[in-house]
Amino acid sequence: MVLLSDVVAVSAEVAATSSRKAKTTALAGLLRRLEPQEVATATALLAGELPGGRAGVGWSTLASLQVAPASEPTLGIGDVDAAIGELRAISGSGSGQRRTAALTALLGRATEGEQWFLVRLFGGELRQGALEGVMVEAIASAAEVRTESVRRAFMLSGRLPATAGAALSGGEPALAEFHLELGRPIRPMLASPAETLDAALSESDGCSVEYKLDGARIQVHRDGDEVHVYTRTLREITRNVGELVELVRGLDCRSVVLDGETLALDDAGRPRPFQETMARFGAQEQRAELLHPYFFDCLHLDGTDLLDLPLRDRLKALEQVAGEHRIPGVLRPTPDNAAALFDEALAHGHEGVVVKDLTSPYAAGRRGKAWRKVKPEHTLDLVVLAAEWGHGRRSGYLSNLHLGARDPDGGPPIMVGKTFKGLTDELLAWQTTEFQQRATGGDSWTVHVVPELVVEIELDGVQTSSRYPGGVALRFARVLRYRPDKEAAEADTIEAVRGMLRGG
Ligand SMILES: Nc1ncnc2c1ncn2[C@@H]1O[C@H](COP(=O)(O)OP(=O)(O)OP(=O)(O)O)[C@@H](O)[C@H]1O
């Protein structure tokens, strides 16, 4: 039997080393020791996820609890699972009090180190998407299967616990059982940045160059008349986007999975601000502006999965089923044609282009070289770590943001700079409320927050710095907008920030 204290020890070991190999070895070592019934819960805990999802425990409850710790570790993985299940089942009148009582009982059975872990687990502070890649490798190593097989199962299920369960109990054959299922979204394929268009073009033999639209990612699943629409973070938004559902229901096919971008357009056909597209995803009421879909990939058509086929074949399927709703682009362009498309995309108010290798399969959830994004200006998506109270006109508002870049090895974000520029009155008011709800501590100047909000920052470049732990500082940073569609695990890495040193 594995104890919670074993998980806590391995988590600490993983956090303490920056060596990917050491992290994988530590995680795999523990995974190997698990009983089959412990695998799902222990995997979730190691990945910093609350087993089974949210349990309705807020920070205010957690912060108010002072429970004397146990002197010896006795909590097994099964005990933790059962206690979380009980917490989740509490409902009805007096549920707040009963939840506090159940949580107090659990914490009373935990040692000091275990309490620390559990409080952060409930508070969502341990969840680090960057750990996912390391976990995938650890599962492969513990189960003695190919990393690619584990990665594929994870992309199709979106769940590490289920992936680990299959790998450790059934090996390769069990992993091969994972399929694209209509109605279950998969993690979208992502792009990595290219310095220039020419650099991106020179990397592939044949490519598709497409507009990079500044909208919001959608994944659409249709099975007969049933249509579901999901966001980039796999949230279902079907009820909010009736016009997209109708459009996909009208396509000439029985079943299909399409990947694309959606955008609200003004009367002249120019993109509306990104915030308006995002607002549609959250709004319950119908709004005036209509969303238009721009599909760029087809992952399934009429009973056949296309994920493993090269892009050129997926694009043929896309043309067949949704040709008139394809994103603007060119296949196998000359350098001049590609440059013309890039200029045209910018002239229409879009972000740039994406250059895609026509031979590449769909590698969900990965930021690989098969898709390269090319943009003209410098922007970074960073994580908000803290904010300082403003002065003068901004007094009473949380203003100056402390910004962190992602640690690719799964550690906490690394601070790279501060800015209060670019914040509108509306954003100031919004973030003042949001940050206080996410506060983890601070002093009279500064409020530290759970590092989960992603903000897009425009900057002139970066410079070396001895002030910040990553050795780099942002130059002339200003806030462009918040990125509610992104999680901290998708923020730019410290390496991406350092990579900008070259560009000046
Ligand atoms: N033609 C396209 N092909 C793929 N993705 C596209 C395309 N046009 C727009 N996009 C958007 O770009 C995103 C892919 O770029 P990337 O993986 O870098 O995500 P990102 O970090 O959101 O990009 P950025 O922050 O630069 O907008 C997709 O999630 C999608 O929303």
Automatic annotation (TrEMBL):
Domain ATP-dependent DNA ligase family profile: residue ranges: 294-407
Cited Gene3D superfamilies: DNA ligase, ATP-dependent, N-terminal domain, DNA ligase/mRNA capping enzyme, Nucleic acid-binding proteins
Protein name: DNA ligase
Provenance organism: Saccharopolyspora mangrovi
Catalytic activity: ATP + (deoxyribonucleotide)n-3'-hydroxyl + 5'-phospho-(deoxyribonucleotide)m = (deoxyribonucleotide)n+m + AMP + diphosphate
A Pfam family recorded for this sequence: DNA_ligase_A_C
Entry-linked PANTHER family: DNA LIGASE 1/3 FAMILY MEMBER, DNA LIGASE-RELATED
EC nos: 6.5.1.1
